Amino acid sequence: MWAYVASYEMPHDDPDRLARRTLVEYPIVADGLLGLGELPTVRLQRAFSTPGTVRRFERLLAMCHWIWFAVPHTSLAYVMLRRGDRFPRAAAQMYAVFDIGAVFYWAIPTAPPWWAASQRQSEDSEQVQVRRMMIEYGPQFWGPLWEPLFTILGGNPLAAMPSLHFATSLMGAHLLSEVDPVAGALGWSYAGMLGLGLVYLGEHYVVDLLGGAVLTETVRAAAPRLVPLGRRWVALLAGLQARAAIG
Question: Which of 211, 114, 156 is nearest to 17 (CA)?
């Protein structure tokens, strides 16, 4: 996780350079197609939100977004407690999603809806005018803690594709379902609510979520074939460690 966090934040060490590399148009085009001519975020906010007000259900969606920071690791802790024999495999899959996602953040930095709207980089600026309700509500809920928390946790705003919020939540739901159907149902419910929140609140395009889902399912499909390779790698590292201890 340290390697992931460092890799996630590092491109934003030079914000201007990252902004010049950031891709803005392709998710707008893709979501326009998925939304039948209108961005799903814009369609949802126009239908249900009231400008200048953060409603109760919107606050709930924001809370789902904030508690995500604990969800992937809590899911793994539950797997470890219930079925310790499954924990190594579960942890490898979860953190593979994190680390592979970081590669995409370097290779194809992609703007989220709120950033595209603020920069007005689309020819049809109305299409990308969205509210970022998490920022509107954050100071109300967290008070003086909001600024330091946001500074720490918002390390790279231009890392939208794929959505690791959604990808790791899906992975958590899969892993929980393997050890406990009740916990699995909670995991799937949370993933669904988070997915809605990410789009509604202006944090992600639908296509970002689809990218996250593809990443998760690809990792799960590839895992059985990669287990032997992982075991050989662990054995190699153990051998090198033993030699270093002897030396």
Answer: 156
